[in-house]
Amino acid sequence: MVYIVRDPRDVATSMYHYSIKRRNIPDTYPIEEYVPRFMKGEFLDDFGTWDEHVSSWQATRQNKSGFVLLRFEDMLADPGRELGRMARLLEVGAAPEAVARAVELSSAVQMRRLEDQQAQSWRLTKESRQDKPFVRTASSGAWRSELPPRSVQQIESEWGDIMRSLGYELSCSKDAPAEKPALARS
C-alpha cells in the first residue's frame, strides 16, 4: 500500500480551485468561507476530513510491512527517489531508465497534455469547467500566497499536531490564539 499525504493547507487551496472547476462553488466564493467547510469534509465526498483520512491510515498501517507513506512535497522534490521507494515496496525492478521515463510521463506538463487531449472522455472532468485545468500548479506551498492568515490559523489550530507528526512546519505560533473554525464551535 502506497499512501500519499499532502500539506492540508495546500489541499484546501487545491480543493477550492477544484470545487470551482466542478461548479460546486462560484468563482466569487471567498476562500475564507470555503476553508471551514473544507475542514468539515463537505467537499471530500466519502473520504471524511483530511485529518480523519490521514489518521486512519497512520493508525492502521504505519510501521507495518507492505505500507509506505509518501509526502507529496517529497515526491516533487525528488520524484526518482520516491518512485524508488514505491518500487522497493512493490518488489518491482526499477532500472534508472525506467524510473526516469516514469517521472517524465507523470510530470505536470505531461498530465496537462493528457488532460487537454482526454478530459472530455473522463467522467470527473467532461462535465466540469473546461477553462479551469484539473492539474493547476502541481506545486507545494501555494497556500502561502492564496490562503488568508485566518484560514491558515484555523487549519493549523485544528490539525497542527498531525501536521507536525508528518514533518510539516506550522507558520503560526502554537501559543498564539487562533480563531477556531466553525466546526470546533458547534
Question: Overview of this structure, please?
Answer:
The protein is mostly helical. It has one domain: Rossmann fold, CATH 3.40.50. About 55% of the residues lie in helices and about 5% in strands. The chain contains 11 helices and 2 strands. It has helices at about 10-20, 30-40, 50-60, 70-75, 80-90, 95-105, 110-120, 125, 145, 150-165, 180-185, and strands at about 1-5, 70. It has a two-stranded parallel ribbon. The model is unreliable at about 175-185 (pLDDT under 50).
Helicity, as a percent range: 55-70%
Major sheet attributes: 2 strands, parallel
Structural class: mainly alpha
Q: Round the Cα radius of gyration to an integer and report it.
A: 18 Å
Number of E strands: 2
Uncertain spans, ≥5 residues at pLDDT below 50? 175-186
State the shape.
Answer: globular
Short description:
This protein is 55% helix and 4% strand. The protein has 186 residues and is mainly alpha-helical. The chain has one domain: Rossmann fold (3-Layer(aba) Sandwich).
SSE layout:
Elements: E1 2-5, H1 8-21, H2 31-39, H3 50-61, E2 68-71, H4 72-77, H5 79-90, H6 96-105, H7 108-118, H8 123-126, H9 143-146, H10 149-165, H11 182-185
Parallel strand pairs: 1-2
Helix pairs in contact: 1-2, 2-10, 5-6
